[in-house]
Amino acid sequence: MPKLSRRRSNDSPKESWRIFYGDVPVGWIGIRTGVPSNANQWGWKCGFYPGMEPEQHRDGSAPTFEQARRRFLSAWSQTLPTLDQAAFEGYRRSRAFGKWKYRMWNEGVKMPTQLASGKSKCFCGAEIDLTNAEDHIYSAHMDLQ
Questions:
Q1: SS3 content of the chain, % helix, strand, coil (to 5)
Q2: 9 & 77 share domain
Q3: Considering only CA atoms, which of 18, 24, 68 is closest in space to residue 43?
């Protein structure tokens, strides 16, 4: 069973951490922006999409990083038992499709949906069409980084 890990986010000017369950980002802990100085400065979010429905997501605030971390862990310990492997696989499949799509665009390759024939070639050279593109992505490109 994967363990939680956290990685510092480079996307935020304030201290911010992304929380991962294996390879799936499942939450965030960080200093909130735009809050009054007398409000809780740390925020946390627990959830991911696709894979979890929006109403399953949880979030909150805390005065310190340690308290935000504890609150996140409490929420995660309640959330994890409600998830099955299909939830995580749904996220991975969506991530793989997105990376594949952007690589196709970056390499100037048209997707089958962009051509009248409905047929194209993947950037890897495989023949793809409207009926097999999805299967091709998930069998050949699930590990795109």
A1: 35, 25, 40
A2: yes
A3: 68
- The answer to whether the CB of 111 falls within 8 A of the CB of 94 is no
Neighbouring C-alpha atoms within 13 Å toward the C-beta of 70: 6
Q: Residue type at 74?
A: S
**3-state SS class at 2:** coil
**58, 100: one domain:** no
Q: Which domain holds residue 117?
A: 85-140
pTM summary value? 0.86
Q: CB of 39 within 8 A of CB of 61? A: yes
What pLDDT shows up at residue 10?
A: 87
Residues 108 and 68 in one domain: no
Q: What is the distance between the alpha carbons of residues 49 and 94, in angstroms, rounded to a whole number?
A: 9
Task: Determine the average pLDDT of the residues in 105-133.
Answer: 96
Number of structural domains the chain divides into: 2
